[in-house]
C-alpha cells in the first residue's frame, strides 16, 4: 500500500493585531468567493440573559461579542467563543454572515487574497432608546472609501409624503397609483448586536 506524504494544508486564516480595531482575522491563503470560512460560536443565550450579563457595562463601550441569531437566541462569543469573534466590521466587506438552522456562518463574498483582513458589515440594530451619541459610540474605523462612519445599520431616512396632483377636470377623477417598495435582501442574514 502506498503511503501518502503527511502534508499539512495551510489554515484559511490567522488572528493577529489589526489596524482597524484590536485583533483581526487575516487570510493565510487565498479564500475563494462562496467559501464558508468559520462558524460563529459561543454560549447560546436568550436576549434577557445577554442583557443581564452586560448590564453593568459602560454605555460608551462598544466592545461586545454578542450576535443575534433570531428573536429568541443570541450567541455570546465572549464565553466559549472562537476566532470568528475577532472578524472586524467593514463598510466594504469581503465576507457576510449567513444563518442556517439557527447557526451563524461567515462566508466570503469575493475572493480574498493572503494577508487581507476579513470583515463583514455588522449592521448593528438601532433601537428607539439609543443614546444621542450612538453613532460616535459605534464609530467605524474601517478606512474604506465607502465608509459610512458607523457600525450601525444605516439610519432610516424620514419618508416623504407623496404630493397629490390636482385633478385635471371636474368629471375626471385622478387615477391612484400603488407605491411599490423594494426591500433589501437581508431577511435570511443575521444581525450583529454590537462589538
Structure characterization notes:
- The chain has two helices and eleven strands, in the order ββββαββββββαβ.
- The chain is mainly beta and 195 residues long.
- The protein has a domain of 96 residues: Beta Complex (Beta-clip-like).
- β8 and β9 form a beta hairpin.
- The longest helix is centred in the N-terminal third of the chain and has 7 residues.
- The protein starts with 12 loop residues before the first strand and ends with a strand.
- The C terminus is likely disordered.
Set down the secondary structure blueprint.
Layout: E1 13-17, E2 23-27, E3 36-39, E4 43-45, H1 47-53, E5 66-68, E6 74-76, E7 88-89, E8 95-100, E9 103-108, E10 119-120, H2 134-137, E11 191-192
Parallel strand pairs: 7-10
Antiparallel strand pairs: 1-2, 3-9, 4-6, 5-6, 5-11, 8-9
Question: What would the keywords be for this entry?
Answer:
6% helix; Beta-clip-like; 21% strand; mainly beta; 195 residues; three-stranded antiparallel β-sheet; disordered C terminus; four-stranded antiparallel β-sheet; globular
Task: Sum this structure up briefly.
The protein is mainly beta and 195 residues long.
CATH architecture of one domain: Beta Complex
Counting copies of identical and different chains, the oligomeric state is single chain
Estimate percent helicity: under 10%
Distance between the termini: 52 Å
CATH top level label of one domain: Mainly Beta
Write down the secondary-structure element order.
Answer: EEEEHEEEEEEHE
What general form does the structure show? Answer: globular
- Radius of gyration using CA atoms only: 22 Å
Number of strands: 11
